[in-house]
Amino acid sequence: MRVEFDEDTCIGMYQCVAEWDAFEKDKSAGKAVLTGAEEVDDGVFALEVPEGAELDAKFAARTCPVDAIVLYDDDGEQLIP
Ligand code: SF4
């Protein structure tokens, strides 16, 4: 499973931080940070979801009010949102 986080879309509500510890607050930027992710496009950060973190990643993606967190399965199919 792969997660993509769109920093430009993020509005810094930080619900994701409460759901998955891969997300941290960057209060000065007013954005979340996806720890360990690599920037794959302008402002888009991607990370392979570590084993055991799939459920947390799903909760984080579901809770984001602006759909800045997108999950894909191993075939590249979009799972959430
Ligand atoms: S829940 Fe969405 S909008 Fe809020 S900090 Fe996380 S990614 Fe950004």
In short:
The chain has helices at residues 15-19, 54-63, and strands at residues 2-6, 23-26, 31-34, 38-41, 44-48, 69-72, 78-80.
CATH classification class: Alpha Beta
Strand order of the largest sheet: 4-5-1-6-7
- Helix content, binned percent: 10-25%
Number of strands: 7
Q: Under CATH, the topology is which?
A: Alpha-Beta Plaits
Q: Write down the overall geometry.
A: globular
Key words describing this protein structure:
alpha+beta, single chain, 2 helices, 81 residues, Alpha-Beta Plaits, binds iron/sulfur cluster, 5-stranded antiparallel β-sheet, two-stranded antiparallel sheet
Description:
The protein is of the alpha+beta class. It has two helices and seven strands. A hairpin with a 2-residue loop joins β4 (38-41) and β5. The strands form two sheets. The chain has a five-stranded antiparallel β-sheet, with helices on one face. A two-stranded antiparallel sheet has the order 2-3. Bound molecules: iron/sulfur cluster (SF4). Iron/sulfur cluster binds at residues 10-16, 23, 32, 63-64, 66, 68-69. Residues 10-16, 23, 32, 63-64, 66, 68-69 line the site of iron/sulfur cluster (SF4).
Which helices and strands, and how do they pair?
Elements: E1 2-6, H1 15-19, E2 23-26, E3 31-34, E4 38-41, E5 44-48, H2 54-63, E6 69-72, E7 78-80
Antiparallel strand pairs: 1-5, 1-6, 2-3, 4-5, 6-7
